[in-house]
Design brief:
- By secondary structure, the protein is mainly beta.
- Helix content is 12%, strand content 42%.
- The protein has helices spanning 5-20, 228-231, 239-248; strands spanning 24-35, 38-39, 47-48, 54-71, 76-78, 86-89, 97-99, 105-106, 108-117, 150-157, 166-172, 175-179, 182-187, 191-202, 207-215, 253-256.
- The longest helix is centred in the first third of the chain and has 16 residues, at 5-20.
């Protein structure tokens, strides 16, 4: 009789461990770019913004950080992979796919994804990224240091400014407060994004993909109209222009399965 106890005990323990294990979901984010309903065609001077400026987009790079997934029961799951930070570059296909490697997300229905656009202050410090491609986003130390939250470069046709296409640089990072032409303070310029997931079910049987699209046209509208003629073709050291980008950034992203 005593010889059977270890076997019975092993079975009981095995059942106990099995009943405690909760299915986990494998999740990846896919990133894309559009202009309105159309896929972004880079280096193509064919788009009009809300101010009527003809423009093209050469490149787009940005950071997201502090990403959190919310389950239908209200539980929040803060992403741990890469410290919850991801760099996206329209010219680097490898950055358009982010597989969560360090997270144990329970399978089930999720209702919301939230994140910070740009680098949250805890990470936005000079030399946080020692290697490329992220370190190419560095922001001048004299202007607050850290990194760009966004780089969007392109060309525009504005007859009021030139008869030829001229470059624009919509760059978002730490802003400056000036007094008597001296910097007396800084503005973070990150902002929070919250997107519904339409009760997306994350399964433990497949790779679950969440698509996050950036509509670059929205940077120039809703609620603020950004006009290259009136607001300038560059935004660095122009907090008023960057504030328009921050306001418009709320409608830039959409999410789909």
């Amino acid at each position: 009789m005593s010889g059977r106890l270890p076997v019975v005990l092993a079975l009981v323990l095995g059942l106990g461990f099995s009943s405690c294990h909760k299915p986990e979901a494998n999740v990846a984010f896919r990133f894309s770019f559009s202009v309105g309903q159309d896929t972004l065609l880079q280096d193509t001077l064919c788009y009009h913004n809300a101010a009527g400026n003809l423009f093209s987009v050469t490149d787009v790079q940005y950071f997201i950080s502090g990403l959190v997934l919310e389950k239908e029961d209200g539980n929040l799951y803060t992403i741990q992979t890469d410290d919850g930070i991801h760099y996206v570059d329209a010219d680097m296909p490898a950055t358009l796919n982010w597989t969560l490697q360090s997270d144990h997300l329970p399978a089930g229905k999720y209702t919301k994804v939230t994140f910070v656009f740009g680098l949250a202050p805890a990470y936005n410090t000079t030399l946080y990224f020692p290697n490329p491609p992220e370190n190419s986003m560095s922001w001048p130390e004299v202007l607050g240091g850290g990194y760009h939250h966004l780089k969007m470069n392109g060309k525009c046709m504005c007859p009021e400014l030139s008869q030829n296409p001229i470059p624009f640089a919509m760059h978002l990072g730490t802003g400056q407060i000036y007094q008597d032409q001296q910097i007396v303070g800084f503005v973070d310029n990150t902002f929070a994004i919250s997107l519904p997931l339409s009760d997306q079910i994350l399964s433990d049987e497949v790779m679950n993909v969440i698509h996050l699209n950036m509509d670059v046209a929205e940077w120039f509208q809703n609620p603020e109209i950004y006009d290259f003629v009136q607001d300038g073709t560059t935004t660095m050291q122009n907090q008023a222009s960057m504030e328009k980008l921050v306001a418009n950034g709320q409608t830039v992203f959409s999410v789909s399965k």
